[in-house]
Amino acid sequence: MVKMALLIGVSQYGAGFNQLPAAAKDVAAMQRVWQHPDMGDFDEVIPLIDPEPQEMGIAIENLFGDRNRDDLLLLYFSGHGVKDESGTLYLATRATRKNERGGLIRSTAIAARFVQEIMSYSRARRQAVILDCCFSGAFAEGLLAKDDSSVDIRTQLGGEGRVILTSSTSTQYSFAQEGSDLSIYTRFLVEGIETGAADLDEDEVISADELHEYASIRVQKASPAMKPEIYTVKEGYKIILAKVPIGNPNLKYRKEVERYVYRGKISPVGRRILNAKRDSLGLPREEATVIEAEVLKPYREYKKKVHEYEQALREAIEHEYPLSDYIRGELQDLQKVLGLRDEDIAPIEMRILTQIDSVFAFLDSDSSPTQLARVALDAQLGKLTSELDYEEKKEEKKGVDYTRLQEFLAAGEWQKADRETEAVMLKVSGREQEGWLTESDMEMFPCQDLRTIDELWVKYSKGRFGFSVQKRIWMEIENSIQDDKVDIWKYFGDKVGWRVNDYWVGYRNLRFSLDAPEGHLPGWVFVSGFVAGGFFGGGLFYRVEACDEIAV
User: Are 161 and 69 in contact (CB under 8 A)?
Assistant: First the structure.
């Protein structure tokens, strides 16, 4: 039995096609896992970068020709998929061209049916094809699209003893993220093999269907509109593609992390469980942190895309309101290239547009609708700066002196410390004149300053007070109930003693002593939330969580 793989990547294209720099890197990553003795363990792995049509056709023919029945043959392709006028799929080469009418010059590409013919003549009973490709018509700034629609791969590459894995349904909209090393789909295929996480049934080998399921789940967390597909004939889905090192502690910990991640977060209880698992496996904290970051990465990518859409919507509203059909069309295009579904953007639009409508209902003004929309965005949401872009910048403390806060806390003068917390946070945010913070200010508060304030509160209250304590309580409530943020805020108020018998107690009735409920202080933020016109406690606590991740 021989295991052979041909890995084709086409990055360089002529006129009419955008370049795909990730394709060559895709091949290098695939070569790494397939030829590794503890992973793919293939006897021969042949990389082929930017081939001419004849060179590519001969390589495919050599892969499948003159083989034995028990051989395992794998063909991988990363590049542009192109359709002719009849909808037939072609794999583009560096020489692929279009005619004056924009139609494909067929002789410059490799037809899928040619691959099917070669495969059907092969005596090898185990044949696997992995296609990370698409048509070049769907792309936007920051994303390079690699296919579009309606190519029936099942009929064009189907056959006995075969398994075909594709990056999306009918190869539609498979994306390579600009600035990223690998295409999204290939990245998760490699991750599943390298980490062993694709061994879903824990039998120490990775079958084609397991690899597909793992990559599919991870892809859809990062880009929900992408839907990888698997097409098999007979037992093709059970072809063993890779193996997993026995007793790998990193893999065991990774599976535990995936188990305790819910909605892109690790709950406080889950954190305690994972810490115990990490210690029992003897994993260094640094390795555990890297594993957690890998598991959470698709969720963060998805969150970044949602943030990008929200920012675009707000900018569009500030430019004109109501939105014209043209602007709505542009927003739909952005949604498509970000890989977001209607259900991903519906909550954003509902929240923002409902807030604007509420301002219209209460403001009696001669201002234009666009001006009123700007007022609504400024008053209720603050000027938006992407939290994720902000986090990517290296932060420095704002030069605020925390000596007085430390002195008040050390002396147990909790109310003075609370007021000093207010003063320093306003100074850090540059909002001393306004006297309150917007939700946006909270969500982007500098991490180093936030940590300094929190650490002082936690230290001198012996772990009873502080933003991190409040965050833990908030997250426990959020993870246990499915209500909206206002109701969660009420439950939180009950828990920390800011509400008694369904009534908010008010700042003057807060308890400035260690006898107060856990998380009772700092309390000035509680009052500022009402002054600012919204319940942004969650925004602050999410910022605390994000800063924890940055620190890691």
Answer: no
Q: What is d(CA 352, CA 355) in angstroms, rounded to the nearest whole number?
A: 5
* H/E stretch holding 129: strand 126-134
Q: Is residue 335 a contact partner of residue 310, using CB atoms and an 8 Å limit?
A: no
- Say how many C-beta atoms besides its own lie within 10 A of residue 325's C-beta: 7
| CA 35/CA 31 separation, integer angstroms | 6
Q: For residue 551, give every residue at least 6 positions away whose Cβ sits within 8 Å of its Cβ, in sequence order, or none.
A: 447, 451
* Residues 322, 248: Cα–Cα separation, whole Å: 57
Q: Are 498 and 523 in contact (CB under 8 A)?
A: yes
User: What is the number of residues in the chain?
Assistant: 552
Q: How far apart are CA 206 and CA 552, in angstroms?
A: 31
pLDDT (tens place) for every residue of the chain, 552 residues total:
899 999 999 999 888 788 888 899 999 999 999 999 989 999 999 999 999 999 999 999 999 998 988 899 999 999 988 888 777 788 899 999 988 888 889 999 998 889 888 988 898 888 999 988 763 222 222 333 444 434 454 444 433 467 888 886 544 444 554 445 788 899 999 999 988 889 888 888 999 999 999 999 888 888 887 788 888 776 777 889 998 866 678 878 888 888 888 777 888 788 889 988 888 888 888 888 888 888 888 887 888 888 888 888 888 887 887 888 999 899 988 888 788 888 888 888 877 776 666 555 544 455 566 665 555 555 444 433 333 333 333 344 456 889 999 999 999 999 999 999 989 998 988 888 777 777 667 767 888 899 899 999 999 999 999 999 988 888 888 777 655 566 777 888 899 998 888 887 877 889 999 999 999 999 876 655 443 334 444 667 777 877 775 444
CA distances from 328 to 84, 356, 533 (A): 31, 17, 29
Within 10 Å of residue 171's Cβ, how many Cβ atoms? 25
Which H or E run contains 14?
Answer: none
Q: Which amino acid is at 239?
A: I
Domains delineated in the chain: 3-243 (3.40.50.1460), 302-384 (no CATH), 403-551 (no CATH)
Distance in angstroms (rounded) separating the CA atoms of residues 220 and 302: 9
Across-strand partners of 533?
none
Encoded amino acid at 346, one letter: A
Chain-centroid distance, C-alpha 309? 14
Question: Phi and psi at residue 363, in whole multiples of 5°?
Answer: -100, 130
User: Please, which residues bridge with residue 177 across strands?
Assistant: 143
Residue 145 phi, psi dihedral angles, 5° rounding: -80, 145
CA distance 238 to 272: 37
State the DSSP string of 349-403. Answer: HHHHHHHHHHHHHH----S-HHHHHHHHIIIII-S---HHHHHHSPP-------H
Q: Compute the distance between CA of residue 189 and CA of residue 191 in angstroms, rounded to an integer.
A: 5
